[in-house]
Write the structure tokens for this entry.
Amino acid sequence: MSYKAKFKVWRGEGGEGRLEDFTVEVNEGEVVLDIIHRLQATQAPDLAVRWNCKAGKCGSCSMEINGKPRLGCMTRMSTFSEDETITVTPMRTFPVIKDLVNDVSYNYQKAREVPSFTPPADVRPGEFRMKQVDVERSQEFRKCIECFMCNNICHVIRDHEENKPNFSGPRFLMRIAELDMHPYDVADRQETAQEEHGLGYCNITKCCTEVCPEHIKITDNALIPMKERVVDRKYDPLVWLGNKIFKRSS
Amino acid sequence: MGPREVERSAMTQTTPEAPARRQRAQVKVRTLRTDRWWLVPLVTFLGLSSFLVYGVWAIIDTSNFVEPYIAPFAAPCLTTQEVCEGARLFGWAPVGDWYALPPGLLILGLPGGFRLTCYYYRKSYYRSFWLSPAACAVQEPHGKYTGETRFPLIIQNIHRYFFYFAVVIGAILTYDAVLAVVHKPLGLGSWILVLNAVLILGYTFGCHSCRHITAGRLNHFSRHPLRYRAWTFVSKLNAKHQPLAWASMFSVMGADLYVRLVAKGIIAFPYA
């Protein structure tokens, strides 16, 4: 069964733009990205959209559909009623290059600021020995496809552009948590998570978890455990005392 | 020119460094969401507000004990005041007769602080009371945001200390419930107190700080198998932290109200 759907799509370069109205054919089983491609093929050949795998694994087609960050390739048209007007805009938190294509370089900049995996100097490649239980907690975070929808929805930078220099967003705080939980990582992640990457800005409203297409429990399994580790390190006098008495390294 | 240079050159043409092209989409509305995003924060606001209002009334109300039930909001009573008669733990009253304020004030700060600094409740009241944000992808109304980086919200980091006290309070409520069942096994109130104690313990031990303390702070689970097992159990409870937070909040209100209504004689059937 096909029908004509009403779409409002953001058109424009940079911040300047407007929502343009389209009426476009929708067929059974299609997703929003299919409709965007049909618009390109039939009505708006210069409509810019970033996409790649069409399977929810490359994280390229992040956009906002009816105001919610979604992957265009994973949003079925059957989730909308036929008389509904569907609004498609680029991600709000990042600058727009053209139409639905964002400049996501903020994320690459933040990625570079996280020091890579740092094993002990006396352990050579090939000598790592880890049990499954020691690594499976952080394996959840490896599912991330870097669609950056978590950073897009996080109100710390979505609603406050001025926080961008001081806040790395859920994606990279999760990366820091992944490394901090790694049995062989020896870099100091806790101090930098709080002081340089802005973990304290997170007020755990869990929007990052809500939008994650890989269903990673970003807040419960990465951000809150990392906050607790920071409390150990910076705010808990009993832990500090215990570390002194038992000569534990933090 | 290699393929990468060609690609970079093409990008340069389509993304010049003009200021207008470095801006976000200037969408003029607060949100483009079309669902009823305001419903959850509204219900949360009403639910939490009712808890606060009830808590204030429970502190003032003096009908907190009727053999063998002790109202959870008054347990344990730490003063020698007459209104506490029967609600003391082993008759213990560390605060003397000089104390004239409502006795509930002495104890409610601990479970109240536990809930106030709880990671789940923080989410709920930041959203529903402070609108920061009211819902995902809904612009918040505040011009500035510093989160939990400075006073007063940096105090949220003491949550684990409230957890330690909450364990004690949970144990006392469990003890009170067991005593009630022993003395009045057919009493409806006894089983209401048992249900409340179970939910309170489920909420308390599903806490994120508890999860961290059991083994979350470790990087080598395999070296601590018992702590790892405890962590997996706490993690299962933690996954239900939100429903347990609500269920225990309503159960403690319901159990407290029930005991007070029995104490006042408003509920007076034989197996009350």
Remarks:
- Residues 198 and 236 of chain A are 19 Å apart (CA to CA).
